[in-house]
Structures are given as structure tokens and as C-alpha cells.
Amino acid sequence: MMSPSAYADAGLKLRPGSFGSGTEGAWQSKQGLPDSKGNARHALYLQKFTATETVAAAYAVVDNLEGLAADELTDLSWEHRNDGWCGAGAPRWNIVVQGEPAEPYTLFLGCAAATHTFPHPGWTKDSYTGDDILEIGAANSGNGDNLADIQAGTIVALYILFDEGTTLNGLPYGPGFVYLDNITVNDKVFTGPMDNGKH
């Protein structure tokens, strides 16, 4: 099984997309912090310009992480631009872990509950690290009693989901978008599409 640091060089890719009306998930230039290469200043833009209740979302899937031991997922973070949304449920990390049950667990890590630091003006870093990743994710998803099984499991999927819109129950809710940058999975940092692995 690969070590966590090996995954940084194993071709991890961040693949944005969306489904449903009023949504968009894509890298945009001139909206973010400095990139690892060039001066395009990409940021990952996630948008839902519709009601929160509408089945629609923007997302970004982390490919090629499958098979990593769940307890070796040690760093999940991003920086969000402060004009966008950071709610309890969006943007959020969804971690799908295969333990002993036939059905895998889906763990949730929302933006608002992350540890917040402020490394760049106008941006907030939202981090989950170490044991907190699985413990908080298990508690949030109602699987706290299965934590040991989750910790012994393997990663099936990892993705960022943005599914909170501009209204909730007919009332104004949020701006319906967020810009993310310096998206980090263990030792791998995505600053733009140029960071999509070596393969």
C-alpha cells in the first residue's frame, strides 16, 4: 500500500464539474492566489445559483486516491476567498470509506466547522488534519459508533461538494458561489489545472 507522501507523486488529479440548473464547477483564471507555475492565478469556482433544496451541485473529484488507507488521510484543506460562501454543509469534503459493511460510509467535513487561519489577505484557510478528519467526519455522518471500522477501511472516493444555493425554504440564504485555492490532499497542493499530476 502506498504511503501518504507517495500519493503526491502518483498522479492525483482534481476534476471539477457540476450537475443541475444554475451550477458551475471550473478553474477560473485571474481569480485566485499565485499558481505553482505561470501567473494565471487560477481558483476553483463552484456555483449554485438556485434554491438549496434543488437537486443540483458543483463539485471537484480527487481522482487516483482510491485504495489509500483511510487513517493515512492526514491533511484536507483549501483557502476560500472571503466574498464566497463557507457554510456548515458547503463547500464540504465528502470522503467515501470502505469498511466491513457492504455499503461504504460517506463522511462529511463542512467548511464552517474547519480550523480557520488567515495566511493571505482576503482569504481564509479551512483545514482538517490528523485524527480529526475521520473522527469529525464519522460524527457528522452519524457513524461515530463505527469509527474503528472506518479507521481500518480504505478510501473509495474523495470529492468537494457545493450544494447550498441562494435561498433556503424560500428565504435568502447565501451568495451561491465560492472560490477555492491551494486545495490540499496530504502532500499534494492544487493551485490550478496545471497541478493535475504527472501522468
Short description:
With 199 residues, this protein is mainly β. 7% of the residues lie in helices and 41% in strands. It has one domain: Jelly Rolls.
Low-confidence stretches: none
Strand content: 35-45%
Number of domains as seen in the coordinates: 1
Shape: globular
Mean pLDDT score, rounded? 94
- State the distance separating the first and last CA atoms: 19 Å
How large, in whole angstroms, is the Cα Rg? 16 Å
Structural class: mainly beta
Largest sheet: 7 strands, antiparallel
CATH architectural name:
Sandwich
Bin the helical content: under 10%
- CATH topology title: Jelly Rolls
Care to count the β-strands? 14
In the CATH scheme, the class would be Mainly Beta
Number of helices: 2
The secondary-structure element order is EEEEEEEEEHHEEEEE
Helices and strands, with pairings:
Blueprint lengths: L12 E7 L3 E6 L14 E6 L8 E7 L11 E7 L10 E7 L6 E6 L4 E3 L5 E7 L2 H9 L6 H5 L2 E9 L4 E2 L2 E2 L4 E9 L2 E3 L9
Antiparallel strand pairs: 1-4, 2-3, 3-13, 4-10, 5-9, 5-13, 6-7, 6-10, 8-9, 11-12, 13-14
Description:
- The chain is mainly beta and 199 residues long.
- It has one domain (4-195): Jelly Rolls, CATH 2.60.120.
- Helix content is 7%, strand content 41%.
- It contains 2 helices and 14 strands.
- The chain has helices at 132-140, 147-151; strands at residues 13-19, 23-28, 43-48, 57-63, 75-81, 92-98, 105-110, 115-117, 123-129, 154-162, 167-168, 171-172, 177-185, 188-190.
- Strands 2, 3, 5, 8, 9, 13 and 14 form a 7-stranded antiparallel sheet that branches. The protein has a 5-stranded antiparallel sheet with strand order 1-4-10-6-7. A two-stranded antiparallel ribbon has the order 11-12.
- Strand 13 and strand 14 form a beta hairpin.
- The longest helix is centred in the C-terminal third of the chain and has 9 residues, at 132-140.
- The chain is globular, with a radius of gyration of 16 Å.
- The chain starts with 12 loop residues before the first strand and ends in a 9-residue tail after the last strand.
- The model has no long low-confidence stretch (mean pLDDT 94).
